[in-house]
Structures are given as structure tokens and as C-alpha cells.
Amino acid sequence: MSLQNDFESATRRVQTLGSTPDNATLLDLYALFKQATAGDVEGKQPSRLKIRERAKFDAWAQKKGMSQDEAKEAYITLVNSLVNS
After folding, report:
1. Contact (Cβ atoms closer than 8 angstroms) between residue 32 and residue 74
2. How would residue 56 be classed by pLDDT, with cut points 50, 70 and 90?
3. In CATH, what number does 3-83 get?
4. How high is the pLDDT of residue 18?
5. Is the pLDDT of residue 9 over 80?
6. Do residues 34 and 41 touch, judged by C-beta distance below 8 A?
7. Is 60 helix (H, G, I), strand (E, B) or coil?
8. DSSP string of 2-58?
9. Chain centroid offset of residue 59 CA
């Protein structure tokens, strides 16, 4: 299987988790997914009043410089650990 196929499989499997991961894990999943699919974050950081949007932006910004393939691999690893726990 290719990395892209493994990544797509992980994106489907994450939706079948028995319980919702904690917020930190959700943000990590989001950031890795965005880095894998869109690359480095762009644009302005949202206002502090937009707490959810800002948290997502900041989590994604922490992945800046990570290649899309590295992000896919990290996403797959994280999903596998969640599915197997």
C-alpha cells in the first residue's frame, strides 16, 4: 500500500473510534491532517475571542516546516495508536 492509501484509510478509521479523544489529541489530529493535505499554515492568527479557531490555527502552526509525507506518517501513527487503545 502507498502512503497516500494508508493516509486515506486512517482518515476513515479515525471516524469510527469508540470514544472521542481528548482536546489535545483532537488538535493534533487536526494539525497533522491539515499539514498533510494543505502544507504550512498561512494567513493571520484568529482573534483571541475566537478560541476554537485560534487553537486550531496554533496547533497547525506548530507543524510548520513538517513535510506533507511526514505529517501523513505521523497522522497514521496517531490514528493507529488511538484505534489500538
Report:
1. yes
2. very high
3. 1.20.80.10
4. 87
5. yes
6. yes
7. helix
8. -HHHHHHHHHHHGGG-SSPPPHHHHHHHHHHHHHHHH-S--SPPPPTT-HHHHHHHH
9. 9
Whole-angstrom Cα distance, residue 8 to residue 37?
11
pTM exceeding 0.90: yes
User: Which pLDDT value is given to residue 2?
Assistant: 95
DSSP structure string for 45-59: PPPTT-HHHHHHHHH
Checking if the pLDDT of 1 tops 80, the result is: no
Look up residue 46 and give its three cell numbers: 484568529
Cα-Cα-Cα-Cα dihedral of 8, 12, 28, 22, to 10°? -170
Is the pLDDT higher at 85 or at 81? 81
